[in-house]
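for the writeup, i need someone to sanity check this before i put it in the appendix. the sequnce is what the collaborator sent (i think, or maybe the updated version? ugh). structure was predicted straight from it, no edits. if anything looks off just tell me and ill rerun, i have time this weekend
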Amino acid sequence: MKVTRRVTLGGLLAASAAGSANAQQWRPPRAMNWIVPFPPGGSNDTFARPVAAHVSRTLGQPVVVENRSGAGGTLGGMVVARARPDGCTLLVANSAQSFATVVYPDSGFDLLRDFAPVSNIARVPVGLVVNATRLDVKDIAGFLAAARKAPDTINIGSSGLGTMPHLAIELLQRRTGIRLMHVPYRGGGPALQDLLAGQLDATFQPLSTVASYVQSGKLRALAVATTRRESVLPEVPTFAEAGVKDFEVSTWYGLFAPKATPAVPLDAIHAAVQAALAESDIKRIWAEQGARIDLESRQAFGEFVKAEVERWSAIARTTGLPME
């Protein structure tokens, strides 16, 4: 497993200045437009808008966050891909765009081909949770044993076909050799409601979303799909600790520019975003959303995105996708 090197904010600013002497002096020539390729009110908005406000103050230009939804985020992506590469039009993408080419093959959208990664914004880890009454298992070992004893009988919900939770289910089956009964919903909320109502056995959810239900005993969290435990439920082991290796899943959010955008604006925007992520109000909002703040270089973010695209696209190609 590739380990991404984390650096301090001061180190990021110094590296940015060293990499491009003019980056710290760059200012947008006009108002910036950040395209969110999903409807208003979603998680992309939740994370983009506070960061945009900080970046606006840092770079001295308004930052307008605009929602342009459709085709799993590919329509808004194409608007940015065709925009002038001057650092003023950016895409607020999430992990769904890492395999959008497979899900929507006719969209002409390709995250690696059409965009330059600018900065991470947030990463929200997910965990496997079960209905504590409906499925009497205490840990991952028990879950796997139950699935092997009765293949295709454990109902596990997702937020829909071609979504990250759907691919997480596929990845879990590949890593462990089990067979589950996938039940796609129209969003993670309905899946969670059916899990609480006893209509589902299991689902993948952000731990922050289910923490209160786990603490009350309605749900049981079996494992979190990260490299370290999460503070919201520190007693929940990672999949690796539970014996399932190479199983890391998160919903991530990041900023992307048209591919031909020069390094100077990319470095300046990256530094401004990373500075925003170090602010106390951002840390508070992210903690409320169960999101991680990882300060990292622009290069490290690009390497992360490349690895995500390669991994999830490979899985999506063999799971009954593309979408019809």
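The CA atoms of residues 98 and 308 lie 6 Å apart. Strands lie at 32-36, 63-67, 89-94, 115-131, 155-158, 181-184, 202-206, 219-224, 250-258.
thx in advance!!
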